[in-house]
Amino acid sequence: MMSEQISEIELLKRQNKNLTLLTEITKMINATLDIGKLLSAVMNAIKEIMNTEASSLLFYDETTDELVFKVALGDAGDQLSEKFRTKTSEGVIGWCARTKTSVIIDDVYKDERFNANFDRITGFRTKQVICAPLLFKGKLIGVIQGINCVEKEKFDEEDMKLFLKFADQAVLAVQNAIFFEKAIEEKKIQNEISAMKKMYDIFLRPFRGTISGIDIASETIPAREIGGEFYDVIQFDDKAVGFILGDIHQKGVPGAISASFMAGAAKAFAKTTGKSPLYLSRDIENFIIEKSDLFSDVSFFYALYTPTDKAVEFVNSGFAYPVLLRGGKSYYLKYNTHAFGSDTASKNIKAKKIRVQLASGDIFVVLTDGIINLRDENSSHFGLKRAMDVISSSKPDVEEILCRLKSETGSFIGKYGRKEDMTFICVKVL
């Protein structure tokens, strides 16, 4: 009788201890942001309460249909944690994940589902396992397991009931881990985008001004927060003015990084090797070929305006659209040849320089293909003709033309949204 009372007291003590640990874990799940500590605490509690030699928690990688050891405690833990993966078609944990079923195995080496590879790798000897899937709203997110009973021969149904309670807590911990990691990653990406946007805004801020007898209005509007187009206005010592416009044909952060890199190179070439459009375009072409691992196809437009004779010379390689507004009519200066890329040299295609004589009142406009290729909800293109109509129907003022182009393209796409970056350069000869 006394021994039975002692056993009941010991059972109550154990249940109280388990309940206390369960409560502590629940508090930690709701309070901590240190996911590594949280998961380790859950697994330590499982190891202690279940009285096992080892325990492990594995995340399910849906893309590869694998389980990866996220936390592994015990003699072999350091060898497994974050290092080993197993297919859901392999081993007891794979079976548990695949069938979404908990299981107790008294002698794993007599069970055909057991995979002994981890024992061979770690030198650990697995005898018994208790394993349960981690399910969130019916979806598999991982597996937990306890390995080898201590102070008794095998796991029993009472162990499984307790184990499943901890599985529920582990699900909360894993979900916290997933949400937290996603939040951290999203914050990191947003910080990187914000930092890149500050740089992007510096070298691509809208340009308005009058220099060397010409009015200029230029602007880039990325499809996302940042994009892959760039432009620059350079005034040389002899008052000549260069206009650089490029399109990396990439969007987002990769496009912005490549665009800033290319913009810097173009300006450096213009300042050091000469302002000639033909020479500059050849420098850029060679640069792109040398850096083919960074760039595939690049559209590059460079124009040089000389105030002494009111003429503009340009090289158009790729998908830029130069338009001349004269006497209320717009004319497309169709002289583009090819986009720069790694296959340019093999095709032996050379850029050509074009010279256009301008007069007072003429307006020279350059548009990127992001404007021409805009689509509305019916998949109709904005098109070059529509752009030219907007230019010719506007007041002969660079600011007015740029504002009209922005307004008309915005109205055209409506709620459909822009899918391409857009860049405008408007130059009026005074």
Write structural notes for this entry.
Residues 74-82 and 344-348 have low confidence and may be disordered. The longest helix is centred in the middle third of the chain and has 47 residues, at 157-203. 42% of the residues lie in helices and 27% in strands. The protein has a 6-stranded antiparallel β-sheet, with helices on both faces. It has a 6-stranded antiparallel β-sheet with strand order 7-8-18-17-13-14. Strands 9, 10, 11, 12, 15 and 16 form a 6-stranded antiparallel β-sheet that branches. A hairpin with a 4-residue loop joins strand 11 and strand 12. It has 12 helices and 18 strands. Helix 1 runs parallel beside helix 6 (157-203) and helix 2 packs antiparallel against helix 6. It has 430 residues and is an alpha+beta fold.
Question: What's the topology here?
Answer:
Elements: H1 2-31, H2 35-49, E1 52-61, E2 66-73, H3 77-80, E3 85-87, H4 91-99, E4 103-105, H5 117-122, E5 129-136, E6 139-149, H6 157-203, E7 207-211, E8 214-221, E9 229-235, E10 241-247, H7 252-272, H8 277-290, E11 297-306, E12 311-317, E13 320-326, E14 329-332, E15 340-341, H9 344-347, E16 354-357, E17 363-368, H10 369-372, H11 384-393, H12 398-413, E18 422-429
Antiparallel strand pairs: 1-2, 1-6, 2-3, 4-5, 5-6, 7-8, 8-18, 9-10, 10-11, 11-12, 11-15, 12-16, 13-14, 13-17, 17-18
Helix pairs in contact: 1-2, 1-6, 2-6, 6-7, 7-8
